[in-house]
Amino acid sequence: MGVEFKGNFIDQQVAESFASQKRTSQIVGIFSFIAVLLSLLGLLAMSTYFIQQRSREIGVRKVFGSNNIQILKRLIFTFLNYVFIAFVIAAPIAWYLMREWLSDYSYRIHLNPSFFIAAGLGCLLISFATVFWQSYMAANANPVESIKRE
Predict the structure, then answer these.
(1) Cα dist. 76→20, 51, 132, 149 in Å?
(2) How many angstroms separate the Cα of 146 from the Cα of each of 12, 17, 28, 59, 76?
(3) Residue 72 CA, distance from chain mean position
(4) How far is CA 32 from CA 22, 38, 76, in A?
(5) How far is 126 from 131, CA to CA, in rounded Å?
(6) What is the pLDDT along the chain (150 residues), one digit of tens a residue?
């Protein structure tokens, strides 16, 4: 009777069932990259503005004997504190959302705190790299120019 057999392998069925998850993962990855890029640009703009506002203070500190390393540390740690506070606020929210999302799956991983620690350290490293150049330029600037300009 010529009935055609339509069979699938299990790996094909699994691939079809997770196709939407793969698309969602790609979309989330693209938007995450854009969000990180925008946040880094915002942090760079904020650090530039903050350093320009404090250029006279930096000049006075240098005149009174602060060295470049002390000024650099002060500027960088100011911004790293902001990033740390943001991480402390965001980590519990991310943990809750991830726990709810993973509860939909029958086979799931357990959320390990090391995932969040690694993400926080990555954010601190990227923020450090973003702010370092502006802080370095401000710390090595001639104090006479910054005081004379204002």
Answers:
(1) 42, 10, 7, 23
(2) 67, 62, 44, 6, 19
(3) 21
(4) 15, 10, 25
(5) 9
(6) 678 877 778 888 888 878 888 898 899 999 999 998 998 898 889 888 888 888 888 888 888 888 889 888 888 888 889 888 999 999 999 999 988 888 887 777 888 889 999 989 988 898 888 888 888 888 888 877 777 766
The per-residue DSSP string of the chain comes to --PPP----HHHHHHHHTHHHHHHHHHHHHHHHHHHHHHHHHHHHHHHHHHHHTHHHHHHHHHTT--HHHHHHHHHHHHHHHHHHHHHHHHHHHHHHHHHHHTT-SS-----HHHHHHHHHHHHHHHHHHHHHHHHHHHTS-HHHHHHH-
Q: How far is CA 49 from CA 54, 84, 135, 146, 149, in A?
A: 9, 20, 11, 14, 16
What pLDDT was estimated at residue 139? 84
List the structure tokens of 124.
């601190």
